[in-house]
């Protein structure tokens, strides 16, 4: 049996950048940059829940 605890990872992804506006929602290889982060965390298998927060997406709602 695996000794795994319930773990929620929270990633605050600040979009403010002088060089690249809305960088977290910019697409690279058909995926938003924040999507690459989510996939890497998921593939690592460290947590069973993940919350990503970005001001990029909040501004568009």
In short:
With 61 residues, the protein is α+β, with helices and mostly antiparallel strands. Helices cover 30% and strands 26% of the residues. A hairpin with a 2-residue loop joins strand 2 and strand 3 (31-32).
Explain the overall architecture.
It is a single chain. The chain has 61 residues and is α+β, with helices and mostly antiparallel strands. Helix content is 30%, strand content 26%. It has two helices and four strands; from the N terminus they run βββαβα. The protein has a two-stranded parallel sheet with strand order 1-4. Strands 2-3 form a two-stranded antiparallel ribbon.
List the topology elements:
Elements: E1 8-13, E2 27-28, E3 31-32, H1 33-44, E4 49-54, H2 55-60
């Amino acid at each position: 049996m695996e000794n795994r605890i319930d773990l929620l990872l929270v990633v605050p992804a600040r979009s403010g950048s002088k060089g690249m506006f809305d960088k977290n929602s910019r697409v690279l290889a058909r995926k938003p940059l924040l999507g690459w982060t989510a996939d890497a965390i998921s593939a690592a298998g460290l947590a069973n829940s993940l919350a990503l927060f970005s001001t990029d997406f909040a501004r568009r709602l």
